[in-house]
Amino acid sequence: MAKTKTFITAIPFQAEGQLKLTSYLAQGNKKLEYCDVTRFPIIPVINGYAEKGDTIRIIAIVTDAENFHHNYKTYFESEISPLVKDKGYILEGIETIISPDDEDIETQLKLFADIIEKIKDGEELHACITYGTKPTPIVQFMALNYAFRIKNISIGCMAYGRFLHKGEEDGPAVGRIYDQTALFYMGSIVNRLAENNASAPEKAIRIMLGLDSDIEEDEQNV
Question: pLDDT for 4-31, tens place per residue?
């Protein structure tokens, strides 16, 4: 049985007129190429990682303030519906997490608890860390790390969309979308190295990242 593909994103806070349709140019990951414009970088992620007939779920983090609710109801839902229809997905549902408009630690911890409560065993998780307040991507990373270690899930793509601020005279809004999944796996590798009391963890990390090599060490051992 195919895994349900679940996509997690935060709804942006921009006021009416500021959340622009944007052409996001994929950087380094061809699956994120998207020929249309969108206000939400999670759209290219869904387009690239879900196939016709796939069952998908969407978890939208909505801060409890007017602009967030407006962008969710007016723009997000209206972009999801045609995408699902055109691509032939089976949409299990769009589930919202309403988070208080506050930055205190209690708010972040509750958001973490709410996200992991929504994640089901056996899913394939994808996330967009573009929008939300500064702590929101950290909370998303924590939730996905918990699910990866505790629940029977797999991690697909974690993406970040960068809006390129240009004047109106420069033409349609453009942006770039980056695959940041390697950062998630690096966190898992760091945890594993710490748990195993690796003798030279920093060197191991540099070798894995291609920033160093073990040639010199091997030559010394000849």
Answer: 999 999 999 999 989 999 999 999 999 9
**Cα torsion 70, 83, 133, 152: sign:** positive
Domain residues of the chain, as ranges?
A: 5-179, 182-222
Quick one: which of 122, 161, 119, 120 has its CA closest to 142? Answer: 119
The class of domain 5-179 in CATH terms is: alpha beta
Total residues found in the chain within this entry? 222
Q: Which helix (DSSP H) or strand (DSSP E) does residue 31 occupy?
A: none
Query: What are the phi and psi torsion angles at 2 (to 5°)?
Result: -65, 145
For the stretch 86-113, pLDDT in tens is 999 999 999 999 999 999 999 999 999 9
Q: What angle do CA 143, 162, 50 make, to 5 degrees?
A: 55
> What are the start-end ranges of the E strands in the chain?
5-10, 22-27, 55-63, 90-99, 124-128, 154-164, 173-179
Does position 216 have pLDDT exceeding 70, yes or no? Answer: no
CB 66 within 8 A of CB 52: no
170 CB burial (10 A radius; 0-12, 13-18, 19+) = exposed
Instruction: Kindly state the tokens that stand for 91.
Output: 């949409």
Q: What is the pLDDT of residue 218?
A: 47
